[in-house]
Amino acid sequence: MTVRVLVASNNAKKLKELQQVLDDCGIDGVELVALGDVEPYPEPKEDGLTFEANALIKARAGVAATGLPCVADDSGLAIAALNGMPGVLSARWSGHAGQHGAEDTDTANNNLLLAQMADIAQRDAAFVSCCALVTPQGEEFTAEGRWEGSLLEAPKGEHGFGYDPIFQPADTPGRSSAQLTPEEKNARSHRGTALRALAPHIAALRS
């Protein structure tokens, strides 16, 4: 039996990341469905105060609109010197979210954050992700992942998206997360960790 699962994101890289996790876990019989493959529905307002709350908001909206099990995530960069900010505001830190293309928004967010941290020596940071699975039967599962590291002083690398060019993972000395291959990133990243924890619940949908 093959089960269709909606991935509530307009970022094709996130769908590919989940597919890679399922493949690595030996989970077949799951067809991932992109938002572009379903009838358009209004994007829910992500007004939660935590990553978990926002992930659940998006997953619940996907189920309600399509009747499919839905996976969604909310993630961001937490800077110790900024008391965990940008946190849940990461995607709209510069105020440009939804106003420009994704790359322009990423650049604006990165530039603003680097300017705000220019004179701060304490640069500990972590990527945080919460992934949620909501089923049409009302079951809800969540999992969180963290990727510890530090904030760079200038962007490095061409891969990834978001804050990847200015994040230095603790487990890849000398390379930003934007300098890692997709396989390297999936094996270490906050979202990869959360998705792997969620994978058994996704596999259970086939029964």
Automatic annotation (TrEMBL):
EC number: 3.6.1.66
Annotated cofactor note: Binds 1 Mg(2+) ion per subunit.
SUPFAM superfamilies in UniProt: ITPase-like
Active-site residues, record numbering mapped to chain: D74 (proton acceptor)
Enzyme superclass (EC): hydrolase
Enzymatic reactions: ITP + H2O = IMP + diphosphate + H(+); dITP + H2O = dIMP + diphosphate + H(+); XTP + H2O = XMP + diphosphate + H(+)
Known cofactor(s): Mg(2+)
Residues at which Mg(2+) binds: D74
Pfam families linked to this entry: Ham1p_like
Region entry Disordered, spans: 167-193
Keyword set, alphabetical order: Hydrolase, Magnesium, Metal-binding, Nucleotide metabolism, Nucleotide-binding
Single annotated GO MF: XTP diphosphatase activity
Family indicated by similarity: Belongs to the HAM1 NTPase family.
Quaternary structure and partners: Homodimer.
Function: Pyrophosphatase that catalyzes the hydrolysis of nucleoside triphosphates to their monophosphate derivatives, with a high preference for the non-canonical purine nucleotides XTP (xanthosine triphosphate), dITP (deoxyinosine triphosphate) and ITP. Seems to function as a house-cleaning enzyme that removes non-canonical purine nucleotides from the nucleotide pool, thus preventing their incorporation into DNA/RNA and avoiding chromosomal lesions.
Protein's name according to its UniProt entry: dITP/XTP pyrophosphatase
Gene: rdgB
